[in-house]
Amino acid sequence: MAEEAVLGYLETNDEIIDSGEFAAQRGIDHNEIVNVIKSLHGFRYVDAQDIKRETWVLTDEGNSYTTLGSPEVQLMLAIPPEGISRDELQKKLGPSVFKIACAQAAKNKWVEMGKQLISKKVQHVEDRVKDLLLQIQQGQGIGSDDIKALKARKLIVPQTWKGYSVKKGPNYAPKRKKVLTDLTRENLQSGEYKDSEFKEYNFSAKGQPLEGGSLHPLLKVRSQMKQIFLCMGFEEMPTNNYVESSFWNFDALFQPQQHPARDSHDTFFLETPSTTKELPEDYVQRVKQIHESGGYESRGYGYDWKREEANKNLLRTHTTAVSSRMLYQLAQKPFSPKKYFSIDRVFRNEAVDRTHLAEFHQIEGLVCDRNLSLKDLMKVLRDFFKHLGMTKLKFKPAFNPYTEPSMEIFGYHEGFKKYVEVGNSGMFRPEMLRPMGLPEDVQVIAWGLSLERPTMIMYGIDNIRDLFGHKVDLALIKKNPICRLGIE
Length: 488
Ligand code: PHE
What we know:
binds phenylalanine; alpha+beta; 3-stranded antiparallel β-sheet
């Protein structure tokens, strides 16, 4: 009915000036008219302009007086011609109404407040307060003095009234056409589709939330990282072994056996099986030798290298353990250049805090080829980080037991407006590569970074425990957006 009223009126009139008056004149609830206007506006049947007005509405107390009458009139009606005692009157009216009523009636000079009795001074009174309240309830205006008085008695409060002025819209029609959402077998067969209008696609609609599995942000960033490596022609290394021997994790990397990282305070060692079964014996001998007395123009460390230390099983502390296995395998065949990457989990015996967990993920890339130099490393790092959207890089000399030279990588973060550390890199030492059997002119450039750090930056997470582990909010995993790195 409300819709017919609006569309019908506009057929012969230019404008509904005020939806409030329009509704009142037709005895239609204003809310109903407003809903119809909004819906018609959505389909452009009408154009609507907002109107706002300050109005007054009755408080609960005000509302109650529209039926019971004002307290002062209730009081007048309760006083018999001969007058009544205070106590009795209070009993009739109730204490709260009695109090208000006495004050108002006395102010109006309607009653005589005697010592014994309260009696009427006038016989007939009009309930102006009730009348005013009724007028307001019906949306009629009243004088400003009356408003002030009712407001002071907390019988009315201001409220912003919202309505519309309405004109024909570009799709105006006196009757709303049925819009179909689907072309179906039925409406094709009946021919209904010919005269029907179809609902336009709403490309900004959110869509149904999907029930089912969702990818964790780390997995999203991981697959993007993987994509970058694949674009750059890198092959993925097999990282499916969390358990590694100290040999591949440390010794093969020319990390001395007294190195603090090899302490149980930093590394998780396995109780069962506590040692590895197999290592390539001739290579083990060459590693022992390079540690003890050097070779290939190196002096070595000059200590007594112990096989038992190398045999100890541990949870790998970096994915460079996998790189060392892969490079060793590569050295067993006639040399061909390789570009390798891996993204997988590593473990360190760390105190857990906002930014550290005892397990995290490393991203590692390496290029193995003849005659590589630091320049090539910087070039490949610039390439890689450009794919991540970082074009401004700075390098800082650093130290790793297995690389020389080594560089920390800093990238300019456009959001943070400063350089942040984004990774570690270097050229693997001859002491690592030569015992493997790689030709003398072959170098390996490599770099590593954590997967968590870019993920936290990208998803605005500042506590690692909100990203990984048992405290992670499942809603975060269900709702987080797709990851799009600055891929070129
Ligand atoms: N393995 C190093 C780390 O755990 C990263 C790295 C990889 C450094 C390759 C240099 C070369 O931090």
